[in-house]
Design brief:
GO terms for molecular function: ATP binding; ligase activity; metal ion binding. Its cofactor is biotin. Keywords: ATP-binding, Biotin, Ligase, Nucleotide-binding, Transit peptide. This is Acetyl/propionyl/methylcrotonyl-CoA carboxylase subunit alpha. By secondary structure, the protein is α+β, with helices and mostly antiparallel strands. It has five domains: 100 residues, Rossmann fold, CATH 3.40.50; 70 residues, Dna Ligase, domain 1; 254 residues, ATP-grasp fold, B domain (D-amino Acid Aminotransferase, Chain A, domain 1), CATH 3.30.470; 122 residues, Glycoprotein, Type 4 Pilin (2-Layer Sandwich), CATH 3.30.700; 69 residues, OB fold (Dihydrolipoamide Acetyltransferase, E2P), CATH 2.40.50. 26% of the residues lie in helices and 32% in strands. The protein is globular. The chain starts with a strand and ends with a strand.
Length: 674
């Protein structure tokens, strides 16, 4: 059995592997970059070694250095997690050549499946259905465009060596092909070091179904049933569930057997995922095989009563699979939601900042229930803690929220409740978006396909609405009680008191708050009147008595008129974050005693939406442009973001060139509206 392993990754997967290894009595070694010196995965491992600077290519992608650290620390094996070097055949072979165990498939299997083009050719030889497309070596833009025209639009451009939605573009028209191809290749070379792409027919309303497979060195190979990963944005998964809704047993068996045959064809060992794209009529086509553990593996664990990381460690130690195919029954239903630091309302732009407050729903991490006993209802896998920073160097995932239910209805209810309890302050997140998605008619009724988010944009991205009186009351009362408590700390100084007491009259003050609905120029005028028997509040045309029933830290229970209301209020500077009724309200307090805030950047200067690198400048100084024209393309977290003209106008000056690093909010060019 293994006694010590090195984890060549970071974040939640490193924490996940460390937790399972500890339970099995295996010691762990973490590697970390300078940006991750204080990270959670460093803290939870038995040892930790600095591997290099923040940039992944100078740290987590330094394969030879990682092998040297493993040997120096006495580790017997290397677990690659997912991402980084997890599907790098050369690294797997170098680990083996160094006399260590690579906890994953052999390099030959990775090579066979690592290239989408080669994998499709292999599957074609095995009579596995393939989506019409071109998977060859000719990468001339004109030739690829000819292939796209032949296949018929829309087509999907996909990085051959890619994954995670990077290096993918849907092209609707022939005239858009060249620009999309150039963007796809730039993203592919940045993410994978290989700009080769394939072209496929883009299916209308397809589902994304994947099969979890596992093989050992004794010739055993099983499938642990399917996951539905259809709900995606930018070709990246948002929600995953197991089993797939409305999956007939015969189709489940057919897809499972096809996945096992694919794994056997390449001599596979360890955990892997065979991905299929399925039509609404039930027909399915091979897409690719991920030769590693997947981000969404917990939902498979929850319905099969297995720990897939434990299986990885046992197989790597030369043991057979713990279960046979006949023992892998489906129990209940599980759904995973990826909690990201991103702003869905701004095209899912990643959000950079510090987790000033993070409160997760009550959960049991990494403890899986055996059948006969239900698994934990809620599970949270996370690689960050309150106080940690989400940097621009790595994926902005904060946590994976996984729920289990006896059936899909119960799992949906538990996920909705858990999202209501997940509170984050300090940066933008997708929690509110996920809640709308989970509670929406399309997902709740299992009307699933990969275009669900785009198709239901109006309900998933609603216009901002006014904060209700209850949220304003909680913020106002939190502000008022905070002032009172500060005065109470100095009872001998009467002028420090902030109780609002007046000898012969009531005292009314007006508090100014603003949010996305009101905008910075407007705001809510919240009247708070101090009376001998409590408070009164008036706002939004309403006036109600207000009383504090109970306060424990940030948790408040208030009585607003005849209604009792509970919530928590977290203050971050002059911003009050109000969590109540399953919603999160962000209210900026306009403190009349504070200095005026910084002026906005000069009008007409388009700014960077986040820190990143300029990869293309399409604007030319002195040239007129139309609304929506692409002006600058930035890359951040290996994803491209296009800055477009907000209206017809004139580009007066270009302030950055290709290759320049720019800060969040930096003016990129001077623009004059027509």
């Amino acid at each position: 059995m293994l006694t010590k392993i090195l984890i060549a990754n970071r974040g939640e997967i490193a924490c996940r592997v460390a937790a399972t290894a500890r339970r099995m009595g295996i010691r762990t070694v973490a590697v970390y970059s300078e940006a991750d010196a204080g990270s959670k995965h460093v803290a939870v491992c038995d040892e930790a070694v600095l591997i290099g600077p923040a940039a992944a290519k100078e740290s987590y992608l330094r394969g030879q250095k990682i092998i040297e650290v493993a040997k120096a620390t006495g580790a017997q094996a290397i677990h690659p997690g997912y991402g980084f070097l997890s599907e790098n055949a050369e690294f797997a072979e170098a680990v083996h050549a160094a006399g260590l165990v690579f906890i994953g498939p052999p390099g030959s299997s990775m090579r066979a499946m690592g290239s989408k083009s080669a994998a499709k050719q292999l599957m074609e030889g095995a009579n596995v259905p393939l989506v019409p497309g071109y998977h060859g070596d000719n990468q001339e833009p004109a030739f690829l465009r000819e292939q796209a025209d032949r296949i018929g639009y829309p087509v999907l451009l996909k990085a051959s060596a890619g994954g995670g939605g990077k290096g993918m573009r849907v092209v609707e028209r022939s005239e858009d092909f060249e620009a999309a191809l150039a963007s796809c290749k730039r993203e592919a070379i940045s993410s994978f070091g290989d700009d080769k792409v394939l072209v496929e027919k883009y299916l209308i309303r397809p589902r994304h179904i994947e099969i979890q497979v596992f093989a050992d060195t004794f010739g055993n190979c099983v499938y642990l049933h399917e996951r539905d990963c259809s709900v995606q944005r930018r070709h990246q998964k948002v929600l995953e569930e197991a089993p797939a809704p409305n999956m007939p047993p015969d189709r489940r068996a057919a897809m499972g057997e096809a996945a096992v045959n694919a794994a056997r064809a390449v001599g596979y060992v360890g955990a892997g995922t065979v991905e299929f794209i399925a039509n609404q009529d039930g027909s399915f086509y091979f897409m690719e095989m991920n030769t590693r553990l997947q981000v969404e593996h917990p939902v498979t664990e929850m319905i099969t009563g297995t720990d897939l990381v434990e299986w990885q460690l046992r197989v790597a130690a030369g043991q057979p699979l713990p279960k046979k195919q006949s023992e892998l029954a489906i129990h209940g239903h599980s759904i995973e939601a990826r909690i990201y630091a991103e702003n869905p309302e701004k095209g899912f732009l990643p959000s950079i900042g510090t987790l000033r407050h993070m409160d997760t729903p009550a959960a049991v991490e990494f403890e899986l229930g055996a059948f006969g006993l239900d698994p934990a209802a809620v599970r949270v896998d996370s690689g960050v803690r309150e106080g940690d920073a989400i940097s621009p160097f790595y994926d902005p995932m904060i946590a994976k929220l996984i729920v289990w239910g006896a059936d899909r209805t119960q799992a949906l209810a538990r996920l909705s409740q858990a999202l209501s309890e997940f509170q984050i302050v300090g940066l933008a997140t997708n929690i509110a978006f996920l809640k709308r998605l989970v509670e929406g008619e399309a997902f709740s009724s299992a009307d699933l396909d990969t275009g669900l988010i785009e198709r239901h944009g109006e309900t998933l991205f609603p216009a901002p609405s006014a904060a209700p009186l209850g949220a304003l009351a909680l913020a106002a009362l939190a502000l008022g009680t905070g002032e009172t408590q500060r005065g109470a700390s100095n009872p001998a100084e009467p002028w420090a008191q902030a109780s609002g007491w007046r000898m012969n009259s009531a005292y009314r003050r007006v508090l100014g708050f603003a949010d996305e609905f009101t905008g910075k120029e407007g705001g809510y005028q919240v009247g708070l009147t101090y009376t001998s028997h409590g408070w009164e509040i008036d706002a939004n045309g309403e006036r109600q008595p207000l009383a504090l029933v109970r306060q424990i830290g940030a948790e408040l229970t208030i009585r607003l008129g005849e209604t009792s209301l509970h919530g928590s209020v977290r203050r971050d500077g002059d911003v009050f974050h109000v969590f109540t009724g399953g919603r999160h309200f962000t209210l900026a307090y306009n403190d009349p005693m504070a200095h005026a805030g910084e002026q906005e950047a000069a009008g007409g200067r388009l700014t960077a939406p986040m820190p990143g690198k300029v990869v293309a400048v399409l604007a030319v100084a002195g040239k007129e442009v139309k609304k929506g024209d692409a002006l600058v393309i930035m890359e951040a977290m290996k994803m491209e973001h296009t800055i477009s003209a907000p209206s017809d106008g004139l580009v007066e000056e270009v302030l950055y060139q290709v290759g320049d690093q720019v800060a969040d909010g930096a003016p990129l060019l001077a623009f004059k509206t027509a």
